[in-house]
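Workshop exercise sheet. Pairs work together: one partner reads the sequence aloud, the other fills in the structure field after running the prediction. Swap roles for the next sheet.
Pair: D.N. / O.F.
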Amino acid sequence: MKVVNVGLTRAPYDVVIGNDLLDRCGEFLRAETGAQKCALVSDTNVYDLYGERVSRSLEKEGFDVLEVVIPAGETSKQMACVSEVCEAMVRGGLDRSSTLVALGGGVVGDLAGFVAAIYYRGIPFMQVPTTVVAQVDSSVGGKTGVNAQLGKNLIGSFHQPLVVVADPQALKTLPEREFNEGFAEVIKHAAIRAPDMLDALDDLEPLIVRNVEIKADIVAQDEYETLDLRALLNFGHTIGHGIEAAAGYGRYLHGEAISLGLVAATRLSVEKAGLPSQDAQKIFSALRRYNLPMALPPDIATADILAALQKDKKFAGRTIRFVLLRALGDAFVSDNVHESDILRAIEDLRSNGLH
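Structure field:
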């Protein structure tokens, strides 16, 4: 078992990583709270696999557990589902002295974390991520929220968990596509902070630890993204989120859309920041290794992607704050990427963006 501390000044917390930790979730939560009532929020896929195990571990530690199960998939990441979860908690008698456990991937973690942020103006919660993308990225850092119809993650709040419990054994039940998509975030972390990680993508538990350490270090220095530091985590996400929204939520898994964004951002880095072509090829090779998409289909209109981008949080007024690479491990926020550059990068994705 490895423990990575997210060293926030106000409310530091631990990310606990190790095999067979799902049966100890109650133990880790009880160490952080004296709450009696607990909402266990999961989705239909994950609950069937792990819901009873986690619920039993919570009950073993004296929690009165209300199970709230939402439909699996990105389409649940909306305000209507937030309202349904909140109403279920009200009916179940949970109040401001209660707590919440988010058991699932990025959708469940983001949505349930947002519920925790707003229910009774904020209750504590625990993240129990069960996908690669959630274990290496989205469960750490306190960003919670849901999608608006016209944009990704536009409705949300910063709300840090009490503790994160990541069990790599949970990843064994992921279908290949869902397993592979999480590596888009791993490749992103490697590109902005740890280039050597591109050559060490096989050993899963140490890889999760390394990614959490990268995310924790950045979040501890820039919790609310008021500096350019945390913004570096958005490498590949500006165009990726635009594609995800324009395609219709559910067509691409999050990491698949981010893969396309990484291709576009890497190509722009070569053009605008002097990223060596051999560094770009390392990123492309890693994406290919996990069968992540690198070409944009013709039926996803460029105009729709650009319209989604205009709603993106990374646009300050009309200024585009776009993350580029000077070299692997050397990322920065540029204001020298214009709409014409983004338009060209999107069009180049239709031929893989690799020429």
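Discussion prompt: The chain is about 45% helix and 20% strand. What would you look at next?
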